[in-house]
Amino acid sequence: MPYGASFAAVYDALMAEDFDYTAWAAYYTDLLASAGVHPGYLVECGCGTASLGIEWARRGIRVLGVDQSPDMLAIAAQRARQAGVPLALARQDIAQLCLGRRADAIVATCDTVNYLASPRAARAFFQRAHAGLKAGGALALDVSSRYKLEEEMGDAPFFAVRDDLAYLWQNHWDRAAHTLDMELTFFVREADGRYRRFDERHRQRAHSVPELTAWLEEAGFVSVRAFGGMTFAPPSATDARIHFLAIKQ
After folding, report:
1. Does pTM top 0.85 for this prediction?
2. What values do phi and psi take at 72, rounded to 5?
3. d(CA 229, CA 144)
């Protein structure tokens, strides 16, 4: 389900602790180039507040950001205006992705494919992404690995307390379905000093490397390769994040 307005408002503050978007944009640009893809037109699926899309737009790439959350897209539009870069945005469920023109590259990062929390939804996205690419184009994506979601997150609770924000995070791991249900309670400091509470419920699925490879090939992709987190080496059994690159003939 789409992120709510309250979560969209704190999303960038949370992600800034773990993600260097300039480095991520550079990695994905290099990953695509390794397959001979130098995109003039790139579609970012699950673009969120467009931190990556803005980085690519600064490199002269024409970017379409696609997300299911209208609140995320509103922040993305504002941030693009502030950055002074052109950025097209569209609200879509990426499992039903429909592009007006075919792209040189489609990218889905930061657990976007994990949020397609069933094999059916992930397979549908791969089929729509294949249809939306030019011949010779590429789909690049990353997922939180099964090792990370099961072993590192599992049923563990997390919490953080900052001056402007606090959150409580409880996980529930379903071993049979390979799904992680996350219950998050946030307390956000308002201008008057009081804290406002809101709750979020998220679900991710830990798709395995063999599953993702098979589904990408089923959708028509070739030369499907997996890499350990932000490297060009094969993933290890304990990599927390795994990247994929798949080519449309």
Report:
1. yes
2. -60, -45
3. 9
